[in-house]
Amino acid sequence: MAEQQEPVHMTVRPNGPLRVEGRIILKDADGKEWDLSGKPAVSLCRCGLSEKRPFCDGSHARAEWKCAASPGNMTGK
Predict the structure, then answer these.
(1) Backbone torsion region of residue 31, taken as left when φ is above 0, otherwise alpha when ψ lies between -120 and 50, otherwise beta
(2) pLDDT for res 77
């Protein structure tokens, strides 16, 4: 019987990063993996301003970047 895996949870932080929690495997375009051992969660940059992309470094706050993403304001439904 296949082992059940816990789901990965992603939270869109208001005017901030994507918070990803769970067993995460993060690869670049060439398939190289970031070492996330010991990290139960990471925050991924949404604004494109981080110096540590793909990870968030708080640049969104310094630049007053805004994004009001929520399921209620999706287009194309």
Answers:
(1) left
(2) 44
Rounded mean pLDDT of 23-27?
93
Query: What is the C-alpha separation between 42 and 28, in angstroms, rounded?
Result: 15
Which two three-digit tokens encode residue 64? 């007053």
What is the pLDDT, as a whole number, of residue 71?
A: 75
Query: Angle at CA 44, nearest 5°, toward 20 and 15?
Result: 100
Could you tell me if 40 and 53 are in contact, meaning their C-beta atoms sit under 8 angstroms apart? Answer: no
Which DSSP category does 33 fall into? B
Retrieve residue 28's tokens.
């670049």
What's the pTM value of the predicted model, to 2 decimals?
0.80
pLDDT: is 1 or 9 the higher one? 9
What does residue 54 show for φ and ψ, rounded to 5 degrees? Answer: -85, 5
Domains of the chain in sequence order: 7-67 (3.40.5.90)
